[in-house]
Specification:
The complex is a heterotetramer.
Chain A: E1 2-3, H1 4-24, H2 28-53, H3 57-87
Helix pairs in contact in A: 1-2, 2-3
Chain B: H1 2-20, H2 27-49, E1 60-67, E2 72-78, H3 80-100, H4 108-127, H5 131-140, H6 142-152, H7 157-190, H8 197-202, H9 209-224, H10 233-240, H11 243-268, H12 270-297, H13 301-321, H14 325-356, H15 367-370, H16 372-385, H17 392-407, H18 409-434, H19 441-449, H20 462-480, H21 483-500
Antiparallel strand pairs in B: 1-2
Helix pairs in contact in B: 1-2, 1-4, 2-3, 2-4, 3-4, 3-11, 3-14, 3-21, 4-5, 4-6, 4-11, 5-7, 6-7, 7-9, 7-10, 9-11, 9-12, 10-13, 11-13, 11-14, 12-13, 12-18, 13-14, 13-17, 13-18, 14-16, 14-17, 14-20, 14-21, 16-18, 16-20, 17-18, 17-20
Chain D: H1 2-22, H2 26-51, E1 59-69, E2 72-80, H3 82-105, H4 112-131, H5 135-153, H6 160-191, H7 196-208, H8 215-232, H9 241-244, H10 250-259, H11 264-271, H12 273-277, H13 280-303, H14 307-327, H15 331-358, H16 376-390, H17 396-410, H18 414-439, H19 453-468, H20 474-479, H21 495-518, H22 534-543, H23 548-566, H24 571-591, H25 598-618
Antiparallel strand pairs in D: 1-2
Helix pairs in contact in D: 1-2, 1-4, 2-3, 2-4, 3-4, 3-10, 3-15, 3-19, 4-5, 5-6, 6-8, 8-11, 8-13, 10-15, 11-15, 13-14, 13-18, 13-22, 14-15, 14-17, 14-18, 15-16, 15-17, 15-19, 16-18, 16-19, 17-18, 17-21, 18-21
The chains are: A mainly alpha, B mainly alpha, C mainly alpha, D mainly alpha.
Keywords (chain B): Membrane, Transmembrane, Transmembrane helix
Membrane topology (chain B): Multi-pass membrane protein
Subcellular location (chain B): Endomembrane system; Membrane
Amino acid sequence: MIETLWVIILSFSLFAIGIFGLISRRNLLFILLSLEIMLNGIILLFVAASNLHGNNDGQIMYLLVLTLAASEVAVGLALVIQIYRQQQNLDVDTLTKLRG
Amino acid sequence: MMLFTLILLPLVGGVIACWSQRVHQDAPKWIASLCLLLSLAFLISIKLFTSMDPSNLWLVDETLAWIPRLNISAHFAMDGLSFVLILLTLLMGLVGLSSAWNEISQHSGFFYGNFLWTLAGIIGVFLAMDLLLFFVFWEVMLVPMYFLIAIWGNENRRYAALKFFLFTQAGGLLMLLSIVALAVLHYQQTQILSFDYQVLVQSPIDSEFAKWICLGFIIAFIVKLPAFPFHSWLPDTHTQAPTPASIILAAVLLKTGGYGLLRFVLPLFPDASQFWSPLMMGLAGISIIYGAMMAFSQTDLKRLVAYSSVSHMGFVLLGCFSLNFYALQGAVMQMLAHGVSTAALFMLVGLIQHKFHTRDLNQLGGLWSTLPKLSAMGLFFGMASLGMPGLGNFIAELLVLIGTFKQAPMFALVATSGLILAAVYSLRMIQKSFFGVSVNADENRENKTGHTSKQIITDLNAKEKITLMLMCLSLIFMGLHPQPIFNLVNGSLIEIASLFQASFQPEILLIEVQL
Amino acid sequence: MIEAIFMITAIVCLISALLTVTAHNAVHALLYLVTMMIAIALIFFLFGSPFAAALQIIVYAGAVMVLFVFVTMMLHQGEKSNLDEKALFSLKNAKGPLLLATILIAELLMISVQPLEMNSSLVPLSAISNEAEQDSAQRDNTSQPNSVKSLAIQLYGPYRLLVIIAAMLLLSALIAAIHIARKTPKHVDVDLSPEETQLANKQQKANS
Amino acid sequence: MTILLGLIPLLPLFSACLLIFWQPKLLLTQIIAVGSISLSALLALILNVQLWDQAQFVLQVSLGQWLSIDNLSLGFTLYLDPLSLIMVTIITCVGALIHLYSASYMKDDPDVCRFFAYLNLFVSAMLFLVLADNLILLYLGWEGVGLCSYLLIGFWYREQKNSQAANKAFIITRIGDTAMLIGIILLFYQFDTLNIQQIQLQSQQLLQMDELPTTEIISLCCLLLFAGAAGKSAQVPLQSWLPDAMAGPTPVSALIHAATMVTAGIYLVARNMDLFQLAPDVLHFIAIIGVVTLILGATSALAQSDLKRILAYSTISQLGYMFLALGVGSASAAVFHLMTHAFFKALLFLSAGALIYCMHHEQNIFKMGGLRKSQPLLAFSFGIGCAALASLPMTSGFFSKELILEQTLLAHQPLLWWGGVIGAFFTALYSAKLFFIVFFGKLNQPSTHNTPTAMVIVLMILMLLSLVGGVQPQGLFTHFSAPADSASPGHTLSLFQHWLPILLPIFTVTLAWFMFIKGYFTPTTPSEGSSVSLKQKLHQFLLSGWDFDRLYRLIFIKPFKLVTEYNRRDIIDLAYRQLETFSSLLYRQLNRFQTGQLRHYSASLVIFCVLAIAWGLIQ
């Protein structure tokens, strides 16, 4: 049988890798990618939990997260395109117009 | 329903006035004056036609359901004290109106709307018996006054309007806090959840929190009645407010603070106010002296009159907290007399500013030669403000001093030195503005003749003369024959005074209250 | 046996995640990400929820990743952007985030270890069918857990609000994406090379 | 008869209101003003005639109820008894004469109507003061009189110094009045009533009881009442306003600062004599103050060069005499001197006014010499006035001042008696000096036009009164048959003490004549050299009335101005503005956290999560 511990370790590590990517990468696209990794880590947990407790709530939650991920990516990528049009590069550190 | 219509009249009048500007340019003025006269007549009719049984303190008492779940009812009641103050409000409303007649030009509809809504709010404050209703009207009267100052004020009116609003708002919130705390404590002790004054006054709460709740109320009212530490909003507001707004502000808005002390602090917290009375009398003493000294050093006329009203309201605070029957009568009388005299002074200063476009004392001078009637009025009201016997202010200050000397001679001594300082600053005001030779009246006439025709400065016109003359007569009436006012206010003040002096046996309690 | 498969897919998943994060070339990163998603789909399958696995592959790996590929294709300048990428990210100047990520993993593991001493284990689909009968009684007649039928019943039973919200979410995202990505005249045309854009701007100024 | 009494104070009040509101032309104002005052003078005389025979009489008329709260009940009731009858007659008669005089004196002044309105208002306030039956009505008259003196001193408001003198007068008297108000309030708590007669009755009962009850409160009340009197009658601590009050027109100085207002203080103490008997040490203090003021006034008058200021200082010293008489307990001597002083001082002021009028507003005495020939009438009237002032025998001044000195002796106060005698010496000296300088010596400025007829008539009447005024009104003594007067009938004056006050004035006048011949009375020119001689310093010291002005400016005015000027921007307001600056400072600091860098935000997010989890783990 699959050890719950291992699943948790896997999803947490995926999550951590995602965070590492989020902070270290300066290209907006890669930030979105690492965001996806974090999401996958979480989805894994949801489904594992649903299986562990034997009911379908986890899977329903998985569906919701899926729609969330999809819409988030859509809007994110639209923004990326617009930014690219204005800045011609996607380096996050140059986008500081919203500072205080 | 009578009292509710009394509040509704100015409200509706305001709406019509505000709307009627589209119909005709100076329609709002007439509608506003009509509405004020109507409500004045209505008030008098209420007083005359209600039955006069001396046993029941309240002339008119009506409750309407408002928030049944929390047992909060729109409970209006009028007794002698609130009747007198509402009468003062309406009269000063008319005075403000007459001074705004030809001074307010741009979007006057909105101005008269705000003007009447402020009055409605003030009348509401004087009638509300339910604490939350009182708080609602306390805020309602602030908002239109804020607009009055912020839109039609003088040079940096926004700063002043904001400062005025913030000060009173902070006080108001503190009051809300103490209202809720009072209700909760009252509920814990007597299992009745009620915000109603008449219910709360039956069973004063006796816990060590009572002191702090009482302090909350006191601070809220002291901010409004500007006493020493919280007075710094008054001079700025008065210098920037347009004349009608500063008339209403000085004549009536300050009295809501005094009324609150008399109505809500003293009866609801008898022992707590006994505890706080030395501190408050000290504050009153300081504000009398501080107001007078500040008034002495001002060069701006409106600031000077503002600081003088801080000093005068110090007497009201002294009168309220010396917990003695004479002093309470004196405090009420001071509220009325100060209302009339300061309103007149502000009207005169407004006229001077309107004619000479300056409020600076150093540039004024020798007005007696150019404007004899205005200066004569200025002299009269200057004398009233320094407490010349034969006028209302003297009677008030005399009674307050008699009351305070019995309770705490030291504070009374400080207050009497305030009398001397009052003479000092009002004489300086009279001398610098009316006597002597006008410093630059001749020069600015020469260099002005270049482009404007010699600006002929007209003396008082008929309307202003009538209003000022009426105010003089009312002050003299209050000075020489104050008995009707004392009889009116007698009932409620005996109620309050009997809480404090066990030995106080008002043998005239049973006399029939007659006008 | 399932344990072994799980271990392998987990390792594959981790490696591909690490590679996506540290890749310089955008397309490589995308591909590594796709492999990770497929590995996760396999794990779902191992858990005994085939519907989730299918969805993962179809929607997530299929649709979302393809979207990414499209966008990279639009924005990728080929070699120039690879060079930029090397400038933008290098392991030696990513020390801070690395440290942070490791601390985070350590903490999360410490959390997960403590409450779960009672080593409950996940049982694949076939073994748990018997306990499901008792608790399925209170739920309305789901034949057996994790099957698509019971999922659908639940989805359109108690959770119908969730579906509506998800639909609304998708719709709004759709509209937002279209609106944001719309090409307004003053924007430079992304697929023109820089020289052509100056040309277009001159023409625009001429005729406006 | 009570209606007559009621009418006396109300007539001038009506005419004042009439003049204020109607402001008729010159002739009509004169008629109304002078008419109303002379009418009330007539009424007063009628009352005098009717009540001449009755020794003790009391007339009361109530004009209305003022206020009644709890047990404080005040009414507008007028109370007439011999003392107030005398005061009323003095005020109305002298007032009428001065009104007649100022009708012609002020006829070319543009706003005459305002002048007469104030003058009428003043007389009615004074009458209310004198006829008041309770202390608050007295205080109403008291402040009304102060107000009118302020308005009249500052009548020519164009010059800055006039209105400043008016301010000074009002504020100094206001200080005295506030002290008096405190005294009245304390009295109210002590005797539970403010009615003057009841207070006197209760204090008489207290006097009969051998053990005196809480005396220090009563003596405090008496002291405060005396402070009010000192303020109004320009006694030592509060006397610096009277010389400056000469800035007003001369009839004003004559009426207010010689005859009526300054005597209000004496009337107050005389009226409450029984109360003051309860506090013997306060009476003694009053006597001492009287002597000190008496000497101050006399010596300062010597050094003055302005005609009206000399008369002002002489008024201060004569008031000192009256307070001396009150201090030794003989109110009758004080009131008698008050009456005679009213007449001859009014005469002096009015003739001074006439003098200035014909010397076209020249007030320096050293510039008017040898007017004996050109103005014989003025010389004659001035002579009688100065004689009465110097209390030469057979003049009214002689009888009253000699009576005061005798009373001081009877009250076993030899020291005070000597003070009085020295004062009398100086008074005689400066009045003789004044007379000789103005009317003898060489003529250096011709007097142009002579005095109008109205003024002449008034001067004649006043001359008559100041000569014949010596006869003591019979009613005065019976009213004050207070025990203090006949305290020691056995004690007879020694020969020396009897004759000295009679011979002293004659001797000093001849001494003054010699000094005038020798030329001692030349104006002391201020020496330019740094070393100011002692004579210079003494002259400066006396000229400024013992330098009280500089003292007050140093103690009160300078610190007050310093503090108010420093605090003009209201420290409390400053505190609130600091609040404002603090919040904007805080804003700038916190603003630095929003760098706009996306990675900073996400990093801070993660750091926070790490810390949160760490904290969770530690718990």
